[in-house]
Specification:
Helix 5 (88-105) crosses helix 6 (147-165) and helix 11 packs antiparallel against helix 12. Strands 1-2 form a two-stranded antiparallel ribbon. The protein is globular and about 60 Å long. It is an all-alpha fold and 454 residues long. The protein has 19 helices and 2 strands.
Length: 454
């Protein structure tokens, strides 16, 4: 069997990365220890325990997403769709260790505007191979937990972001080209956006005042607009009409996502405190409200109540509350889920979105859900001058400006990366392989006996 050159190159790359770990000299003490890092006695054991738990919760979301997406696609593409999510735990983890975390939280690179310094991205050399990332807390970023724990928590966010995108181009993408794309996306879109929103001097967080408690902008908007770009580059499937293969998979995936989302949102408090408890409450309530809103709105529009609709509604509610989970009350979170479910439902069934063939409605659910969450956060977030309803007219205006900038950056950035990937390795499978299904043509595996898959 002839082995394609691209797979040889891939093996060489992973070999170099892994073997270099043997020769990488790990610093014995943190860089600039007196200026950046605290002391061991500042670590709070309760916070460490909660953040370790949150890391595990967020990690389980990616397999949950695999089941969620895998159950929705046609019977010839279940394994390939699930693997596209699952493989992110391998690819993005190594990218994050080698350079991604440094790009997101390394020494800031930016510009001086008036009396303030605002950064766009971190230096890739600051924490390369997790240099200086150890057991001491960071004075500005992780004050009561080891910096390594913070890095691992953020890693789980980086892992699931490109996995979310996969639902948009399911059933038609070549696996090796997809691997290349998620590497590019993680380095050039996710990490800089993460820095811009969450690093203390990041331009979106410090200059524009963007409030994103747990990733509505960083994760869901970036994935949603990247999904839209991918659909436009790849084009429609040859046969876009399919019946979801396994609704119980979708129910299981939704349960895993909802369970893991507690760590996603409540863990973003970075402490075992009251804010975490409130984020737990708002997350659960928004999802419940969105689930019921979705199925009832379906019914009054002539569609039957479905398990699939309930699951999609629940996820939309989780997406919408993510940027505001620690900033609003539990009653307000019901409104978040209600509004997001209505808007996303209308977008899902719009003729335009059906026309571009977003396979699993990623933009309508994650992109639109993230947008609605960002807008509603700018209206309802509590605190003096924190939002439109609390005296922050300027904050609201800055949020809307940032929303536009993030949309442009993530959409056109992803569109450009898709084009580059497509030039290096064509992303669409052949028409013959698409008919056979990606499970067999890409992986030589099938969920069903071959005679049933044909």
């Amino acid at each position: 069997m002839k082995i394609e050159k691209r797979w040889i190159i891939s093996f060489v790359v992973i070999s170099i990365v892994c073997i270099s770990g043997l020769f990488w000299e790990v610093p014995l003490e943190p860089k600039n220890v007196h200026s950046q890092f605290g002391t061991i006695d500042q670590i709070v054991p309760a916070d460490v325990a909660w953040m370790l738990t949150s890391c595990c919760l967020v990690l389980i979301m990616t397999p949950g997403l695999a089941f969620f997406y895998g159950g929705m696609v046609g019977k010839k593409n279940v394994i390939s769709t699930m693997l596209q999510s699952f493989i992110c735990m391998g690819v993005v983890t190594l990218i994050w260790v080698v350079v991604g975390f440094s790009l997101a939280f390394g020494e800031p690179l930016g510009v001086q505007i008036g009396d303030g310094f605002y950064s766009f991205v971190g230096s890739p050399a600051t924490f390369t191979f997790m240099d200086y990332v150890g057991v001491l807390p960071h004075k500005d970023i992780a004050k009561t937990v080891p910096f390594m724990l913070f890095a691992l928590f953020q890693m789980k966010f980086a892992v699931i972001a490109p996995a979310i995108i996969t639902g948009s181009f399911a059933e038609r993408v070549r696996f090796i080209s997809y691997l290349l794309f998620i590497c590019l996306f993680s380095i050039f879109i996710y990490s800089p956006l993460c820095h811009a929103v969450w690093y203390p001097t990041g331009i979106l967080g410090s200059f524009f005042g963007v409030k994103d408690f747990a990733g509505g902008t960083v994760v869901h908007m970036s994935a949603g607009f990247a999904a839209l770009a991918g659909v436009l580059v790849l084009g429609k499937r040859k046969n876009s009409n399919h019946v979801p293969t396994n609704i119980p998979f979708v129910l299981l995936g939704t349960g895993m996502l909802w369970f893991g989302w507690i760590g996603f949102n409540a863990g973003s408090s970075m402490e075992a405190n009251g804010v975490a408890a409130m984020a737990f409450g708002t997350t659960t309530t928004a999802s419940a409200a969105a689930m019921l809103t979705w199925i009832f709105f379906d019914r009054i529009n002539g569609r039957k109540v479905s398990a699939l609709g309930a699951c999609i509604g629940a996820v939309v509610g989780l997406v919408s509350i993510t940027p505001a989970a620690g900033f609003v009350t539990v009653p307000e979170s019901m409104f978040f889920g209600f509004v997001a479910a209505l808007v996303s439902n209308l977008v899902v069934y719009s003729k335009y979105l059906k026309g571009i063939d977003d396979t699993l409605d990623v933009f309508a659910c994650h992109g639109v859900g993230g947008i609605m969450g960002m807008i509603l956060t700018a209206i309802f977030a509590h605190g003096e001058d924190a939002s439109l309803l609390h005296g922050g007219w300027g904050v609201f205006g800055h949020h809307m400006t940032a929303l536009l900038l993030v949309s442009i950056y993530t959409f056109f950035g992803a569109y450009f990366l898709f084009k580059i990937t497509n030039r290096i390795i064509p992303m669409r499978v052949s028409e013959e392989n698409e008919v056979i299904g990606l499970d067999l043509s890409q992986h030589d595996e099938t969920l069903f006996p071959i005679e049933c898959a044909e």
